[in-house]
Design goal:
120 residues, mainly alpha, transmembrane helix, membrane, protein transport
Length: 120
């Protein structure tokens, strides 16, 4: 398994986790954090702590995803050929013969109907 494949699998896993964490959140203060506890009773973890955890995990997963994407670019195997333009390298320019001049088109000939009109 190549290094790029490992990075690709990690990127997919982190992206999936990021989607799950974002979907659990509710932008209006609800979501998973509102399902814990209710109306002044004992709360499991507390609403504020759950919201903080989801917020921190979103930023952490987004940062990890960005780092993995940038790191995977380093591991991409490239061919042995340079991707630079050969037009800028005077040694790489090969002298190709210029295309020969196109032969001039023959003069327009009268249509074949002229021979047929003489027979009638």
């Amino acid at each position: 398994m190549s290094t790029f494949t490992i990075f690709l699998v990690l990127i997919v896993v982190v992206a999936f986790l990021l989607i799950v964490v974002i979907m659990v959140q509710n932008p209006k203060g609800g979501g998973l954090s509102s399902s814990f506890g209710g109306g002044g009773t004992q709360q499991l973890g507390g609403v504020k702590k759950t919201t903080d955890f989801l917020d921190k995990s979103t930023w952490t997963l987004a940062t990890v995803l960005l780092v993995l994407i940038l790191a995977s670019n380093i591991t991409i195997t490239r061919g042995s050929e340079s991707l630079d333009s050969k037009a800028l390298d005077p040694e790489a320019q090969s002298t190709q013969p210029l295309p020969e001049a196109l032969p001039s088109a023959p003069a327009a000939t009268p249509a074949a109907n002229d021979a047929n009109t003489e027979e009638e």
